[in-house]
Write a structure and sequence with these properties.
The structure holds two protein chains of two kinds. By secondary structure, chain A is an alpha/beta fold. Chain A contains twelve helices and eleven strands. Chain B folds into two domains: 1-38; 39-294, MetI-like (MetI-like fold, Orthogonal Bundle). Classes of the chains: A alpha/beta, B mainly alpha. The A-B interface holds A 13-15, 17-18, 21-22, 24, 27, 29, 31, 34, 37-38, 40-42, 44-45, 48, 55-61, 69, 74, 189-192, 195, 211-212, 214-216, 287-289 and B 47-50, 129, 211, 213-218, 221, 225, 227, 231, 233-238, 243, 253, 255-260.
C-alpha cells in the first residue's frame, strides 16, 4: 500500500513539473510580405547564430495578409513591401495598435520578356500603361498594338496576385492607382511560376522583384524602362543595384519596410532584435539580393525606433511612387 | 474479328497502365536525381536557413512528428469510438442514416475547407493560436471520417457468428465487442488508421490556411527534458501550444524561392516525405496481410 502511494506522489510531482515546465524564451512573431521575408529570415538566422536568446519566427502571408494579422494584435512585427494603407491604418486604430515604421531596403521591380523576344529593346512607362491598364483588358492582345513596328504576335501576360504588395506598387506606378490593373493575366503568388511562364512563351511579358531575375538571368530578358523624364537619367534604364541606388531606375524602385508594434517595443527582446536588424541590414540585404539603403537612412531608422516615433511618413496623399533614397531619408528625419 | 478487338483492348489497357507508371517514374527519378546528393545527416539536423547549402529540415520533421502523434492521439479514440457506436449500438433509424450519409460526405470535402474551419474555430474562437494543437485538431477533423468509415468496414467484416457465440456464453455486449470483435477486426482497423495518417502527413492546404509559419528556427518544447536540478526529468505538454512547421510547408516554401539551391533542398525534402509515406503505406499493406483472416 505504501509503495502505491509513493508511486502516486511521484506521479503527481511529474504532473506538476509538466504543468510548470521550464522557463520560456521570448517569442517574436513576424509575418507579412514574401518580398521582405528573405531579409527578415536572414536577420533572424544571424541573430540566432550570434547568440540572440529570443525565438524569432517569420511567416509569409503577403503584405495585406500580414497587416490584417498585425492589426489584430496577432504579430509583433509585420513585413511590408509597401507602406501601410489608409484602410489598414483604420483597422489598426480600431484595435488600438500603434506602430513604428522602419524602411529596411530597396527593391527594384523588373519587367521581363522571353529570351526569344527580339523586338523589345526597351519600353516606356506609357507603353507599360497601355499594356496593363484596366481598359486594356480584352483590347490590347497583340504586340503590334503596343508600338508601331512591333510584330503581329499575341501578347501573354504574367504578374503577381492581388494580395501582393508588388502588385499594389506596380499598378500605382504604372496605372496611377493602386490595384488598378487588367485582370486577364496569369497571376501567381509564386514568382517561380511567373519565371517559368515567361520563359516558355515567346510573346510573354511579366513583372516581379529584381531578386528573382538575378537568379534566372539565363531564362529571361530584362526590359530597360524609360520614364521619359530626363531629370533622373535620360533614355531607357535597366534595373540593377546601381540604377536603383542612384535613383535613375524610376518609377519601378520602391522602399520596403518592417512595422513594429509599439506595444511590443517595450519587450527587451524586440528592442534587441530590431537594433540587430537595422545594424546588420546593409550586409544581409545585399546578400539576399536586395539593395541596401544609405547608411544614414539606417541610422535615422535606429533613431526613430529608439525614440519610439509612431505612425507612417506615408500619410494620406503622400505618394510612394518615385520616392528616392534621399527623399526617404528626408522624410524619416 | 472479335479476337482482334479483344487484343486491341488489351493493349489499350497496358498502355494506360504504362502511361501512369512512366509519368510517376520520371517524376520520382527527376526528384531523386536533384535531391539525393543533398540527403546528408546535416540536412536532418539543421534548421531552415537563408543560405540553401545550410538549410535543413530539423524543425519540419520534428513538427511533422508532433502533428502526427497528436493527430493520432485525437483521431484514434474518437474515430474507433464513433465507429463502434454506429456499427454495434446505434439503432437503425433515419437519424443514424443521416449521420452515416454525412460522415461519408465529410470524407470527400476538400481539405482547404477544413483549414478555413480550423482557422475560424481553433485558431481564433478557441484561441489556440497557430499551435501544434490547432494544427492537429484540424487534421484530426480531416481524417476522422476516413478512420470511422474504415473501422466500420473492419467491424462489419467480423462475422456475426463470433458475436453470437460470445452472447451464447453469457457475455455482455461490451464484453463481446472488447473481447472478440475488436481483436478480430484489429488488423483492418490499424490499416485504416495508418492510411488516414499517411494522408494527413502530406496535407499542406489546411495547414497553410491555418498559417503554420514557415521559418521556425526552434522546436516545440520537448515532452520530456532532463535538467540538472530537481526533479531531474521534466514532462511537459507545453509543446502542444508552440508554433510549428511541417515537411510539406517547408517544401512549399523552398519551391517558391528564386535560388536554385532551394529547389534542390525541396527535392531532398520531397524524397524524405515520399519515403515516410511509402513506409506508412507499406506497413498498412503488411498488417493487412498479417491479420487477414479466413472465417
Amino acid at each position: 500500500m505504501k509503495k502505491i502511494s509513493l508511486l502516486w506522489s511521484i506521479g503527481v510531482m511529474f504532473l506538476l513539473a509538466a504543468l510548470i515546465g521550464p522557463a520560456d524564451a521570448d517569442l517574436i512573431k513576424v509575418d507579412g510580405s514574401s518580398t521582405v521575408f528573405p531579409i527578415t529570415e536572414a536577420v533572424a538566422e544571424e541573430f540566432k547564430n550570434s547568440g540572440g536568446q529570443a525565438k524569432v519566427m517569420v511567416g509569409i502571408s503577403g503584405t495585406g495578409g500580414g497587416f490584417k494579422r498585425f492589426c489584430r494584435g496577432e504579430t509583433d512585427i509585420s513585413d511590408a513591401s509597401r507602406p501601410i494603407k489608409d484602410s489598414e491604418r483604420t483597422l489598426c486604430k480600431e484595435s488600438g495598435i500603434t506602430y513604428i515604421e522602419l524602411p529596411v531596403a530597396y527593391d527594384g521591380l523588373a519587367v521581363m520578356v522571353n529570351v526569344k523576344n527580339t523586338w523589345v529593346d526597351h519600353l516606356t512607362v506609357k507603353e507599360l500603361n497601355r499594356i496593363w491598364e484596366p481598359s486594356a483588358q480584352g483590347n490590347i492582345m497583340n504586340w503590334s498594338q503596343v508600338r508601331p513596328g512591333f510584330p503581329d504576335k499575341p501578347i501573354v501576360l504574367f504578374g503577381p496576385g492581388t494580395d501582393s504588395g508588388t502588385f499594389d506598387y506596380f499598378t500605382e506606378a504604372i496605372n496611377g492607382k493602386s490595384a488598378a490593373s487588367r485582370g486577364d493575366y496569369t497571376a501567381s503568388e509564386d514568382d517561380n511560376v511567373l519565371v517559368e511562364g515567361i520563359a516558355s512563351d515567346e510573346g510573354a511579358i511579366g513583372y516581379f522583384g529584381l531578386a528573382y531575375y538575378e537568379q534566372n538571368k539565363d531564362k529571361l530578358k530584362l526590359v530597360p524602362i524609360d520614364d521619359e523624364n530626363p531629370s533622373n537619367g535620360a533614355g531607357p534604364i535597366a534595373p540593377s543595384m546601381e540604377t536603383v541606388m542612384d535613383a535613375t531606375y524610376q518609377p519601378l524602385a520602391r522602399p520596403i519596410f518592417v512595422y513594429v508594434s509599439a506595444k511590443a517595443t517595450q519587450r527587451p527582446a524586440i528592442k534587441e532584435f530590431i537594433n540587430y536588424y537595422l545594424k546588420n541590414a546593409p550586409s544581409l540585404v545585399e546578400e539576399v539580393g536586395y539593395i541596401p539603403l544609405q547608411p544614414e537612412s539606417y541610422d535615422a531608422a535606429v533613431q526613430r525606433f529608439n525614440q519610439g516615433i509612431k505612425g507612417t511618413v506615408f500619410g494620406s496623399g503622400i505618394k510612394t511612387v518615385g520616392v528616392k533614397m534621399a527623399d526617404l531619408l528626408m522624410m524619416e528625419k | 474479328m472479335i479476337k482482334i478487338l479483344d487484343r486491341i483492348f488489351k493493349y489499350i489497357g497496358i498502355g494506360a497502365v504504362l502511361l501512369g507508371l512512366i509519368v510517376l517514374a520520371v517524376l520520382v527519378l527527376d526528384v531523386v536525381r536533384d535531391g539525393f546528393p543533398r540527403l546528408t545527416w546535416d540536412f536532418f539536423t539543421s534548421y531552415p536557413s537563408s543560405k540553401p547549402e545550410q538549410a535543413g529540415i530539423l524543425s519540419a520533421w520534428v513538427g511533422t512528428l508532433w502533428i502526427m502523434l497528436t493527430t493520432a492521439a485525437l483521431t484514434i479514440p474518437l474515430g474507433i469510438g464513433a465507429a463502434i457506436y454506429l456499427e454495434e449500438y446505434a439503432p437503425k433509424n433515419r437519424w443514424t442514416d443521416f449521420i452515416e450519409i454525412n460522415i461519408a460526405n465529410l470524407a470527400g470535402v476538400p481539405s482547404v475547407v477544413y483549414g478555413i474551419l480550423g482557422l475560424g474555430l481553433f485558431v481564433r474562437a478557441l484561441h489556440m493560436d497557430r499551435s501544434v494543437l490547432a494544427g492537429s485538431c484540424t487534421l484530426a477533423l480531416l481524417v476522422l471520417p476516413i478512420v470511422i468509415l474504415s473501422t466500420r468496414e473492419a467491424l462489419r467484416a467480423v462475422p456475426s457468428s463470433i458475436r453470437e457465440a460470445a452472447y451464447a456464453v453469457g457475455a455482455t455486449r461490451w464484453q463481446a465487442i472488447s473481447g472478440q470483435v475488436l481483436p478480430a477486426a484489429f488488423g483492418n482497423i490499424l490499416t485504416g488508421i495508418i492510411l488516414a495518417m499517411s494522408r494527413a502527413i502530406g496535407e499542406t492546404a489546411p495547414l497553410v490556411t491555418l498559417g503554420a509559419l514557415t521559418y521556425i528556427p526552434f522546436l516545440p518544447t520537448p515532452p520530456v527534458s532532463v535538467s540538472p536540478s530537481f526533479p531531474y526529468v521534466n514532462f511537459s505538454l507545453k509543446g502542444l501550444l508552440d508554433p510549428f512547421t511541417v515537411l510539406p510547408i517547408q517544401i512549399f516554401n523552398w519551391v517558391s524561392r528564386p535560388q536554385k539551391g532551394f529547389l534542390i533542398c525541396a527535392a531532398a525534402g520531397i524524397i524524405v516525405l515520399l519515403i515516410i509515406t511509402l513506409c506508412l503505406n507499406g506497413a498498412a499493406i503488411y498488417l493487412r496481410h498479417k491479420h487477414q483472416k479466413n472465417w
